[in-house]
Amino acid sequence: MPQLIEQKVIVRYIVNEDSTIGDIEIVKGLDPKRDSEAVKFISSLPKRKPPTYNGKYVKTHFTQPVKFCYE
Q1: Which pLDDT score, from 0 to 100, does residue 48 have?
Q2: Can you tell me the distance from the alpha carbon of 1 to that of 17, in angstroms, rounded to the nearest whole number?
Q3: pLDDT tens for residues 42-71?
Q4: Which tens digits make up the pLDDT trace of 1-29?
Q5: How many distinct structural domains can be found in the chain?
Q6: How far, in Å, CA of 38 to CA of 32, rounded?
Q7: Contact indicator for 66, 23 with CB cutoff of 8 Å
Q8: Is 18 helix (H, G, I), strand (E, B) or coil?
Q9: N or C terminus: which one in the chain shows less Cβ crowding within 10 Å?
């Protein structure tokens, strides 16, 4: 039985006040193809509700792993 290989790309991005995702950057990449796919995946995420500070929405940085699994 083939062994499953798991690798991660670490991505950092901002959720803006209007819930859009921006400023996507690779913190720890694997190779250009997988890094590009990770950015594409993060770009396709649905809008996220940003946190509030003093009753107003604020920009917030998130860091998230994107896992790739293959044989």
Answers
A1: 84
A2: 48
A3: 999 998 888 999 999 999 999 999 999 988
A4: 789 999 999 999 999 999 999 999 999 99
A5: 1
A6: 10
A7: no
A8: coil
A9: N
Cα separation, 50 vs 58, whole angstroms: 6
User: CB burial class (10 A; 0-12, 13-18, 19+) of residue 13?
Assistant: buried
For residue 65, what are the contacts with CB-CB under 8 A and spacing of at least 6? 8, 9, 10, 11
- Report how far residue 21's alpha carbon sits from residue 54's, in angstroms, rounded to the nearest whole number: 22
pLDDT number for residue 29? 97
Under 8 Å between Cβ of 54 and 4: no
Which 3 state secondary structure label does DSSP give 37?
A: helix
Which residues, including other chains, have CB under 8 Å from residue 49's CB and lie 6 or more apart?
Answer: 19
Which range marks the domain in which residue 9 is found?
Answer: 5-70
